[in-house]
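Review box. Two proteins, two foldings.
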Amino acid sequence: MHTIATNIWFWVGFIAFVLLMLALDLGVFHREAHEVQPREAALWTALWVTLALVFAAALRAFEGHTASLTFLTGYVLEESLSADNIFVIALIFAYFGVPKRCHHRVLFYGILGALVLRGAFIAVGAILLARFHWVLYAFGALLVVTGTRMAFHDDDAEFDGEKNLVVRLVRRFVPMTPHYDGSRFFTLDGVRRVATPLLLVLVLVEVTDLAFAIDSIPAIFGVTRDPFIVFTSNIFAVLGLRSLFFLLVSVIDRFHLLKYGLAVILTFIGVKMLADRWIELPIWVSLAVIVAVLATSVTASLIWPKAVASEQ
């Protein structure tokens, strides 16, 4: 069966675009470390969403309506699942007291690692699905379990660095100072080169994204098995994660019912994968369900604020 992934020039062009945007981001627009304000974050978020829509339009021109709609479905799914990622990263930054002017630097290098790790995950997932059809059912079961667990998970739990395994391992094997040195990941302690807490935070951000990728990548394979659409929708969502973080970090706790919406979406896709042999839904149905559930959970969060909901 023909897939977009069979055209090597799509891969070359997209990866070149990503590298160009990353170079412009760090080398031109964020050369100097600074605290990202909401207005700047809103502009960058609008830019990434616009670029995703332009990409969808290009897919429609070259590959047709179905490919374009499939990409949009995957992009909306991956972007919505990043909301929980934003909440956890905010907890990590707060726990370690990361200076706000360093947030962008940590997220930028975190994104680089995420691009590589997610690319590897997607490649392995595509190979497994191509060779073993039962992997689709394993992914579906994983999503159903994840969705159920998310619905009953205590979202008031706080990050505890002293009990975190990653924190303990890094501190054990990497010489580290408890003090920040601007936006540097390493500094000198006398004559010895040691890591700053910023490096530890970066490692935690990478591990956090890896944990979320275990759920989000099987979810996107529930939408499409074309590796190119899976990869591009993931990458656009990851690239927009930084600006979305700065835009939503101060208000993310207001959307306290969003986790239930995400739980419904993950469970819906999981059931869809488990029923793949008997039921084939048009892609527009999946997109409509995802958008409707997200809109409902966000609207409900605003109508019934958390303080009111907890009193009832």
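Next protein.
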Amino acid sequence: MLNGGEKLIGEVLGKAKEFEKLRYAVMENDAAEKFAEIFPELAPIAEAVKVKKGTLYLRVENSVWKNELNLKRNILIKRINEYLNTEIVKSIRFK
């Protein structure tokens, strides 16, 4: 808190109920942006397009990799959520 009762913008955005949707959208964006950081080994074959309403959309190089990653879907979701320390990704869709 600043002098005279003023609050820092981070305090307001971090706690105010009115900004809940904004905080969630920022976390979804972080999940998509950090995909390559979380899975550097997948960077040559998969790219996170976006996360929307808990669904991660991945662009995959070909159908073979799409099938392989689909089989590992639960592992991918768990690792992303652990990395971000929140349950932001609930499912994955492949393009």
